[in-house]
Structure formats: structure tokens, C-alpha cells
DNA sequence: CGCCAGATTGACT
DNA sequence: GTCAATCTGGCGG
């Protein structure tokens, strides 16, 4: 089986975030395969995490403490952000997918993004959802089914998979421990931020 | 229904 | 580097 099983997400969000690097995010769009290797992620926890949506309560918090392996899609600044629900038994958490390295369907992704520069295609959380035509309709949809239109497969990342970490990007208040993970040296990592 | 903050992006100085 | 567009989701009324 190529897709990552549901159990893959049945661990702490930080562990899942690190393990997702190098995996293949696949979108079936109009019968065509669009995909890219995940090169940047961030882990978010429960109410004790000041940057987490779970802290505010409401529907998103419910999804974050619900079934693992489901997509969590929500909008900020007119962009859709894609997360995967991941936590241990009885826990709360999700992993934000921040950047992918384009693999299949690059030309179609360029059309969807309306950009020329390939570097600009998927090097940010709001950019990759646009490139893969991911929106609210995927909210709470499982990513572990072999025939899902949006799923995560075992990939073979081209090159050495050297994992680095830093503090999360764009949050006003972060935890003392850095929870952003990225593939060092990959050109599609959104940006560098010092520890 | 109105208010407001925000896990962003792209244009511009 | 600065800055604002633009809209979702949560919450109060």
C-alpha cells in the first residue's frame, strides 16, 4: 500500500510532523495527478499551545481532538491552510503542511497558481493549497484512503533527507521548543528562520 | 449580525 | 525592509 495508514497519525504531532518530511502529498484533480514531496511542516498542540487554534475552542478544536488522519482545512487572509489531525490516544494536535517540492503535474499547478517562476509554486502553506486546488471541501476528509482525491503516500524524496528545525513562522507567541521541521537545502522551503 | 484577530502573500520603497 | 488586502472562524449581542 502506497498511502500512509491511519495509524501513522496516531502519535504526537511533533513526531508526525518530522516523519512527514519526504512523503508525497497527492491530489487527483480532473483525472490528473498533482503531487509534491513534503519539505516543511509545523506541529500544533492543544490549549496549552498559545499558537494553536485549539486554544480558542470551537469547531476546529473539536476536529483537532477528533479522529486522526483527517484533513483540517481553514482559511486565514484569504488563503486555505492544510493540516493533518495527529495526536496520541486522547490527545489534541495537528500538523500544518507549509511547503512541498513539486513532483507530478507541474504545468497544471502553474496554471492554477498563475505564476511563471517554479520556485513560487508551492513554497508556502497558502501557495501549495492553491497549486493543488485544495479548499474547504477537503475539511475533515481522510488522507489515508488509497482512492482519496487528496492523500499522502510514501515517497522517495530525491536527495538526502536532512531534517532541520526552527521556531514556527507567523505566530505571535511560540512555545520555547521549536516545532517547525524542514528539509535542509531544499529550494522550496518557505524561508529560513534562526532559532 | 457585527466585531476582530490572524498558522499569509505579493506589491512596493 | 514595510504594508495592506481580504475573508474565515469564534464570539458577543
Which descriptors apply to this entry?
195 residues, alpha+beta, 3-methyladenine DNA Glycosylase, Chain A, 27% strand, DNA-binding
Can you give a write-up of this model?
The relative contact order is 0.24. The chain has helices at residues 13-20, 58-64, 106-113, 125-131, and strands spanning 24-29, 32-44, 71-76, 79-85, 94-102, 150-153, 163-166, 180-183. 15% of the residues lie in helices and 27% in strands. A hairpin with a 2-residue loop joins strand 3 and strand 4 (79-85). Strands 1, 2, 3, 4, 5, 6, 7 and 8 form an 8-stranded antiparallel beta sheet that branches. The termini are far apart. It has 195 residues and is an alpha+beta fold. It has one domain (6-183): Roll (3-methyladenine DNA Glycosylase, Chain A), CATH 3.10.300. It has 4 helices and 8 strands, in the order H-E-E-H-E-E-E-H-H-E-E-E. It is globular and about 40 Å long. The mean pLDDT is 95. It binds a DNA duplex (13 and 13 nucleotides) through helix 2, strand 3, strand 4 and helix 4.
Oligomer: single chain
Number of domains: 1
How many H/I helices?
A: 4
Shape: globular
Give the CATH class: Alpha Beta
Q: How much is the average pLDDT?
A: 95
- The CATH homologous superfamily is called Methylpurine-DNA glycosylase (MPG)
| Strand residues, percent | 25-35%
Portion of residues within helices: 10-25%
Structural class: alpha+beta
Low-confidence stretches: none
CATH architecture: Roll
Order of helices and strands: HEEHEEEHHEEE
Terminal Cα span: 38 Å
Find the count of extended strands (DSSP E, 2+ residues). Answer: 8
**C-alpha-based Rg, rounded:** 15 Å
Provide the CATH topology: 3-methyladenine DNA Glycosylase, Chain A
Biggest sheet descriptor: 8 strands, antiparallel
